[in-house]
Predict the 3D structure of the following.
Amino acid sequence: MLLRYDHVQLAIPEGGEDRARAFFATTLGMTEVAKPPGLDPTGCWFEANGVEVHLGVEPGFAPARKAHPAFVVADLDVLAERLTAAGHAVRWDHRIPERRRLHCDDPFGNRLEFLE
């Protein structure tokens, strides 16, 4: 019955929107989209090629260290270079031989996976 993901929501700390924009828009190349009227005005939403990431401010924020979204990318090497150039540590993971992938934390410590 499930067809696809509509979006993934990640928590960010209060006041983290500008750092989120720098990472998700500038580094990852996503486009910020307006949140619908009537929703909490804090946080921010991003989109790229049908992939949506919603970032919501969470009181008492703690980063997701194990749980994570996994994004398919066109060129993992280019992304790794962009992440590294922007100061984000890249952790290559070769434990699943048929999947070329890496992990990186967003500016708040949330774990993200990228695979080709």
DSSP finds two helices and eight strands in the chain. The chain has one domain: 8-115. The longest helix spans residues 17-27.
